[in-house]
Write a structure and sequence with these properties.
Elements: H1 2-7, E1 11-12, E2 21-25, E3 28-31, E4 40-45, E5 48-55, E6 62-65, E7 120-124, H2 126-147, H3 162-169, E8 173-177, E9 195-196, H4 204-216, E10 220-225, H5 228-240, E11 245-248, H6 251-255, H7 257-264, E12 268-272, E13 279-281, E14 286-289, H8 291-294, E15 325-328, E16 332-344, E17 347-356, E18 360-365, E19 372-374, H9 392-420, H10 431-438, H11 446-459
Parallel strand pairs: 1-2, 7-8, 10-12, 10-14, 11-12
Antiparallel strand pairs: 2-3, 3-4, 4-5, 5-6, 9-13, 13-14, 15-16, 15-19, 16-17, 17-18
Length: 480
């Protein structure tokens, strides 16, 4: 793996902080793929992968395990390491993005045209593609000539010219897609006329009348919805106005037998699809209504990315300064004195140095930072440091555990009393409630989702439960 990462352009460093870097510490390999949101920590046991976890590049702390990860190359070609290169040394020279200078790329996708596969190339607006390809070639050539070495080959060594690209394209079977068909010439053409679908702005009567008219004339109508709740609402409207419909909620149903069944029974097909605006094909007598054609919708707001819940260490490693107080899970309150580089057995690693009572020292490897968290104290106060191997810290943990157990006993008694008391059970959510929730333009936090689910479950049961104030999702709502 180390050989492969170096051959595809990754830079070996002592600590992974930026995309394109990797670090090795014994049986642990940290890699930051360029398209990944976070780097991953691969733990090896011999030749087997023991675990793969995402970690924070700032704190170097593991966040969550992942099932699989993709390590994308940073170069066009894989450049093997020199035969006498020491892979355990971090000064491996990163290969050029353009690959070796001996020979150009061994193959291209166009070579498939000369095989038995006979692929078909779709060109969406060919003239626009040619213009974009010319601009890309000019920019790539300029960038190559600016950053190339003195003995580097010419740009044509790596890039096809427009003539070479056109010559290779002529050997393939092509389908040109053009909106105005200005450049097709005598090439065989297939014209498909279309126009935007009608917008009803909430006028259900007019919409259902138009659908009935199209179905009566032998046409096919698709009505798309943005959510399951909206599909259920459209189904209620169809039943109310006596419009036959077929429900296709899954992708297989929408694309396969359900569409055929809708055509045979002269019914409208309701599907869930991300189409806000629809389209009509008059020649094919086919209309696809978007979910915003019947009812106007507000523009969607970009939702903030969901924060990953983490535990243990403090939020920002950069905030910790020498002299700050920290708490170790097993040893108690200590004082942070900085980071230390320690070499042992030919391998080096970085450790946190913690000072305890009687000037005792504890070295914590960065891989185990999850055992340490910041200890917040009032300004000017100095908590006593625990003694390594002492019993005071364990006694405090025992008392805290006893307090938690007592609180749990009290809560059990409270919930047992509620269980024995009969209350009022509310009805489950209706289709309109589902649609109302699906239309919420912001993303709920994990705590809000949990609170909403708990409140609904409690309200639908006959026994009393926690009050709305105790579980209010509004109390946990973050700013959008």
């Amino acid at each position: 793996m180390i050989t492969h990462l170096g051959s595809v352009g990754y830079t070996r460093t002592e600590m992974v902080e930026l995309p394109g870097q990797f670090a090795v510490r014994g049986g642990i390999i940290d890699v930051f793929s360029p398209e990944a949101a976070r780097p991953v920590r691969i733990e090896l046991l011999g030749d087997s992968v023991e675990s793969v976890r995402e970690f924070d590049a700032r704190t170097q702390r593991s966040i969550a395990p992942v099932v699989r990860t993709t390590l994308l190359p940073l170069t066009e070609w894989s450049v093997p390491a020199p035969e006498k290169a020491d892979l355990n040394v971090a000064n491996w020279e990163t290969p050029s993005f353009f690959g070796p200078t001996g020979e150009p790329g061994p193959s291209t996708l166009f070579e498939l045209a000369e095989s038995s596969l006979r692929p078909i190339v779709f060109l969406d607006e060919p003239q626009t593609l040619r213009e974009a390809a010319a601009k890309h070639l000019a920019a790539a050539t300029e960038n190559y000539e600016r950053h190339g070495r003195a003995n580097s080959p010419a740009a044509s060594h790596y890039f096809w010219s427009e003539k070479e690209f056109a010559s290779a394209l002529e050997k393939t079977s092509q389908i040109h897609i053009e909106q105005l068909a200005l450049g097709i010439g005598s090439t065989p053409q297939f014209e498909l006329s279309s126009r935007p679908s009608a917008r009803f702005h909430g006028n259900v009567v007019a919409c259902m009348g138009d659908v009935k008219s199209q179905l009566a004339s032998g046409g096919t109508v698709f009505l798309t919805a943005a959510s399951t709740g909206e599909i259920e609402r459209f189904a209620d409207i169809c039943r109310e106005y006596e419009v036959p419909y077929v429900l296709g909620e899954s992708e297989d149903a929408a694309a396969g037998f359900t569409a055929e069944g809708a055509h045979e029974s002269a019914a409208m097909l309701l599907i869930r699809a991300p189409f806000a605006e629809g389209v009509t094909f008059p020649d094919a007598r086919l209309t696809l209504f978007g979910h915003a054609d019947l009812f106007d919708v507000t523009p969607t707001v970009e939702r903030p990315s969901r924060k990953i819940r983490t535990s243990g260490f403090f939020g920002d490693f950069a905030e910790l300064k020498p002299g700050d107080y920290v708490v170790h899970v097993d040893h108690g309150i200590g004082q942070f004195e900085g980071l230390r580089q320690i070499e042992s057995g030919g391998h080096s690693g970085e450790f946190m140095l913690l000072r305890y009572a009687d000037d005792a020292r504890l070295y914590v490897p960065l891989e185990r930072m999850d055992l340490v968290q910041s200890y917040r104290v009032l300004e000017g106060t100095h908590p006593p440091l625990d003694k390594l191997g002492g019993t005071v810290w364990n006694s405090r943990k025992t008392r805290a555990r006893k307090s938690v157990e007592d609180m749990a006993d009290q809560l059990l008694a409270l919930y047992a009393q509620r269980k024995a008391t009969e209350g009022f059970a509310f009805s489950p959510d209706s289709n309109f409630q589902h649609e109302f929730e699906d239309a919420f333009e912001f993303e709920e936090t994990t705590d809000q989702i949990t609170a909403i689910r708990d409140i609904k479950r409690d309200m639908e049961r006959a026994e009393p439960s926690a009050t709305a104030k105790q579980k209010s999702p509004c109390a946990r709502r973050s700013k959008p």
